[in-house]
UniProtKB/TrEMBL annotation:
It comes from Streptomyces wuyuanensis. The chain crosses the membrane at residues 41-60. Pfam families: DUF218 (PF02698). Residues 77-192 form the DUF218 domain. Keywords: Membrane, Transmembrane, Transmembrane helix. This is Protein SanA, affects membrane permeability for vancomycin. The keyword Transmembrane applies.
Amino acid sequence: MRKFPPRALRLRGLVPSRLLPRGLVRRGLVPRTRRGRRRTVQAVMLASVFALAPATWMHAVADSRTGSVAGAPEREVAVVFGAGLWKGRPTPYLAHRLDTAAELYRTGKVKVVLVTGDNSRAEYDEPDAMRTYLVRQGVPDGRIVSDYAGFDTWDSCVRAKKIFGVDRAVLVTQGFHIKRAIALCDAAGIESYGVGVAEPHDSVWYYGGARELFAAGKAALDVALRPDPHFLGPEETGVTEALASADTVP
């Protein structure tokens, strides 16, 4: 059977041949036969299914477990995912996540905040910047625990479970990311509820939303293959100690 290059996924067969540029037909950029056109359409449909299946799975897993700070259940731990630094300080998107975590703490929804982010090089330290910001928002330093190896969402979820012993948590991130975070933390063994931070629909928001379509595929692979994080390391007692301290304070 004749094979066609990727650009063969044109609308020949759906659009009358007389409306297609003749050069495309001559160069074999569209199938010439009815069977070829049918197989092209089938290939496009199959590719669409594979592309959308991971996103559909994430929505099914997390759909009923997202909401606002007011609607969040009481959990001992909030997990805040990193979202980048600008000149050593949280980006606006990360600052909004941290504002939400501080509100969860102030309203008694959580006792401890686990900040998880990238510290893969000395000059870039997301968790410490997140800690500093939260302290300025009124969260006691002793109620904040840092994970310095949360290089992506899967790593953060697995490390929260295996390294810090988190079993149940409120997850804090932007709305376009929250369902993937819930799905991955669920797969890692954490019973999760998500608070999605609302943002204006600016260019960053649209980029984040588009990126999620591709990130959903990686998330599905992570759940299927369950790779170890980039860095696992020994268990840490930070969350346990912070909770014990919180329970002893009147």
